[in-house]
Design a protein that fits this description.
Layout: H1 2-5, E1 10-13, E2 27-32, H2 50-65, E3 69-74, H3 82-97
Parallel strand pairs: 1-2, 2-3
Helix pairs in contact: 2-3
């Protein structure tokens, strides 16, 4: 139904939700969310999310290679500081994009 209407399925990383990778149109939105009770303050990274961000970077790399536009949103509850989390994601994505496919 979403594909027929040209609507993107929002992909999200939330501890109790399945991690889907369905693309339903020419763009997607990814939301990196977290549990409020895991974060004490919002001025620095408090949870190491490198593994999750690396996994997402691999998916995003494939999306981009397929011509899918990707929009990302990260809230402070994901790791403690959303700007730092997004900077980390972009660094990981840049590293993944500089490697040959599969490597």
């Amino acid at each position: 139904m979403l594909s027929g209407l040209g609507v993107a399925l929002v992909l999200q990383d939330l501890y109790y939700m399945p991690k889907m990778t369905w693309i339903t149109t020419g763009f997607t939105v990814i939301r990196w969310l977290g549990r409020r009770s895991d974060i004490e303050h919002f001025d620095c990274i408090q949870i190491d999310r490198t593994e999750e961000l690396t996994s997402w970077a691999e998916r995003v790399r494939r999306f981009l290679e397929d011509g899918v536009e990707v929009y990302g949103y990260c809230n402070n509850h994901f790791a403690g500081h959303s700007p730092a989390s997004l900077r980390q994601f972009m660094q990981i994505l840049d590293q993944a994009s500089s490697q040959p496919p599969g490597g």
